[in-house]
Amino acid sequence: MGACPLRVDVPDFAAVKDALAPPRIVVMQVAAFAHWLDCFSGDEAFAASQDPRVRVAAESFFPTGLTPLDDGPAPNRAEALFSGHVLSVSPLANPEDGGHFFHLRVRTYGGEYDVVADAALVAGAPVVGGVVQGAFWLSGRLAP
Question: Residue 136 in contact with residue 115, Cβ under 8 Å?
Fold first, then answer.
């Protein structure tokens, strides 16, 4: 797909740390938990929403957790801002509290991500073939 720098939190790190010892290339399944998520019906709607002074591609990835915001050190957080094409959409409900959320599969620069978003954080309607853009916390595990 491509390559880009990113940090991913690995909740089961203690169990897999030997498999991650450098130099190593691994395949990970990454879940991107949305802080906010904007949805567009397609490339044209996404392009029309862009500020003409700062445009990004429909498939773009910015590892914001690795970028310093001032002259200080990078924050070193597993966070990213990205946009991408929606490959699948599943509206779901939490059986414990009835809260609604979405599970999306999104293709963006550098790979595909499982996106999880609380329905209250979603602007617009996610559709297969559409474009989404948002800010995310990244959590992953080694792919089987």
Answer: yes
Distance CA 136, CA 52 (A): 24
By C-alpha distance, which of 86, 118, 127, 133 is closest to 105? 86
- Taking residue 51's Cβ as centre, other Cβ atoms within 10 Å add up to 7
CB 66 within 8 A of CB 138: no
pLDDT in tens, 26-65: 888 899 999 999 999 999 999 999 998 989 999 999 988 8
Nearest in space to 130 (alpha carbons), one of 47, 14, 17, 24:
47
CA dihedral 45, 54, 2, 21 (to 10 degrees): -130
56 three-state secondary structure: coil
CA distances from 15 to 27, 107, 109 (A): 16, 28, 29
DSSP 44: H
Q: What is the pTM of this model?
A: 0.86
Which residue, 127, 102, 132, 136, is CA-closest to 117? 102
Boundaries of every domain in the chain: 29-142
